[in-house]
Amino acid sequence: MKNLFAIALLIVCSAAASVAEISQPKGEVILEISGEISSKNVAETAQFDLEMLQALPSHSFVTSTIWTDGAQSFEGVELSVIADLVGFEGDTLSASAVNDYTIEIPITDAAPGRAMIAYLRNGNPMPLRDKGPLWIVYPFDSSSDFQSETIYSRSIWQLNRIAVSNSGG
C-alpha cells in the first residue's frame, strides 16, 4: 500500500512539474495555444513570447520554398517539442495567422523531423511584412513527401494561434 501511495505521489508531482515548465510570458505574446492541451500558463491557454520559444531546444535546416528565392536557412522549435511541452491531447491542429487565415494540420505533423515553428530565416528575425514573426515550415528538400500542395498549404506564415482539437473521427 505504501508503494502504491508513493507511485501515485510521483505521478501527481510529475504532472505538476510539467505544468511548471511553461513560464509566464514577459514580452509580447506571439503564439497562443488553446484547446485540448494539458499544460497551460495563462488561463486556459499556453502563451509564448519570442524569448520563451528561443529558450526551447532549437532546430534548424536549410531548404528551398515555393515562396522564396533559393535555399533558405530556418531556425526555430520543432512542433513536436511544443506538442510535448503543452501536452497536445487532440488529433488536429487549427493553425491561424495574424490575418485569420486558418489551416488544419494533423497531429502526425507534430513528429520529430517534420514541421517546425521558425522564428529566424537566414539568421534574422522575420518581420510581420516578411512572413514573420513565426512561420510553420517543413524540410521540403529532404523528402518528396514534403513536396505536395497539401504540405505547402500547411506552411502557414504570420502564425499566432494554434487550437488543438479532436476531429471526432
TrEMBL record:
Organism superkingdom: Bacteria
UniProt keyword list: Signal
First and last residue of the signal peptide: 1-19
Name of the molecule in the record: Oxidoreductase
Taxonomic source organism: Cognatishimia coralii
Lineage, top ranks: Bacteria, Pseudomonadati, Pseudomonadota, Alphaproteobacteria, Rhodobacterales
